[in-house]
Amino acid sequence: MASLEHLEPLDAWFLSAENRLDHQHIAAVVICEGPPPSLDAVRDSLSARLHRVPRFRQRLQSVPASLARPVWVDCPEIDLDYHVRRTAVPAPGDRPALCELVGLLLSNELDRTRPLWESWLVEGLMGDRWALIMKAHHAMVDGVAGVEVMAAVLDVEPQPAPEQPPPWTPLPVPSSSTLVADAALRMARQPVASAAAVGRALRHPARTLRRGASIARGVADLVSVVRPTDTHGLTGRVGPHRQWTWSEASLEDVMAIREQLGGTVNDILLAAITAGYRTFLLSRGQAIGDGDQLRTVVPVSVRDPSDPATHANRVSVMLVDLPIGQSDPLARLRRVQEQTRHHKATGEAAGGLALLGLLDAFPDPLVEAGTRAAATVLQTLVQRNVASVTTNVPGPPVPLYVMGRRVETLVPYVLVGEGLTTGVAMFSYDGHVTFGVTGDLDASPDVAVLAEGIAAGVDQLIACLQAGPPLMSPATPRGSQPQHESVRDD
Length: 490
Prior knowledge:
Blueprint: E1 5-6, H1 9-17, E2 25-33, H2 39-47, E3 58-61, E4 71-74, H3 80-83, E5 84-88, H4 95-105, E6 117-125, E7 129-137, H5 143-153, H6 176-203, H7 205-222, E8 242-250, H8 251-261, H9 265-283, E9 294-301, E10 315-322, H10 329-346, H11 348-357, H12 364-385, E11 388-393, E12 401-402, E13 405-413, E14 422-429, E15 432-440, H13 447-463
Parallel strand pairs: 5-6, 9-11, 11-14
Antiparallel strand pairs: 1-4, 2-7, 2-13, 3-4, 6-7, 8-15, 9-10, 12-13, 14-15
């Protein structure tokens, strides 16, 4: 029997958590210098690169009676007329018009009977520009893997050498009997795999104890989510429609702040987001006390460079209480620095990863049922204990090109759902950091205020650069290369 490639536990989670209101896809908006290429040219270019991203020509096949997690199967033919489409923004083609279009296009679920990605060529942008919107299901890629996908379809030089795609023969779709037999074999092997894992742990007791202690501290820190906190009206039932916008900052400015005030790039960006949420809530007439905080869930990369190449999700999470009650930008940064240091010291992300790893110790049918139940419980917990999601993905520091056109701006889109009505995704590219802000259209139609407040938060820290010595010792050596420690998406 040929080996089947099943969804991994976290990937299956994103699939199970999706419904008609909570869409589990991520996206990027790639704004390019004009003139735009033809739709046929874009389709031809992507067709020649599909081999670089195998998931682009695969779909998910469910297993009868949910005896195992869904499997990836090859699609004999990819309908690029469906996956790559053309649209346009109305005149004058300004930023609000593009944001409205992006929100509309990303308010729809992906078709699970097809490969889980779509793309749009967007014409009509002012300044002789155009855009490419790239959308993929979170079950297919995480934030870092999404960057790898973009690297496969974008170029690092204006005129790359022509590429001839290698021949490809799709594997036949497995029959129902094959899927059932494979599921039975997986369940039979489960006790053996668990025993082998225990044996490996016993052969290295000291290392196992150290890792166990670290994970225990992380789990203890992570379960703070069960403690209710003030979500400041930012949680509740979400609808199917999204609002999206963005702001940006100079990476040179961010590095100047880091050089003088200490901390990491992530600390500075989280402090700017804190300022943005403070402005956002004050604009809504919310009363904010000096000690008020806003808890955000921050995906963290746990991707091991030694792991085999994969686009599967490799993320855990940490929880950060954004100090929105602090009116002083330096005090906001200090508090963020303290928290991120604490989370790294306690290994909170490792704790989340360990909890996820436990899923592999149980048969798939139990995991499937447990995942669905957990999704319901999680939505209730999130609405009481977490107010937003914040992701950060480092991108390429050099210019990229699409069919000879330079990429001017690259902006991420983060999903919202599970009761969260706003989310912020950060992405660095060619000397800039963009903040893509997503909101539920009904609950948070005013996310432009949040985006503008984040940019203002960076400006406030720039204004503090002559305030004196660093607040804390930098977490990384001065003068080192820009870093986006492992905070990512989602």
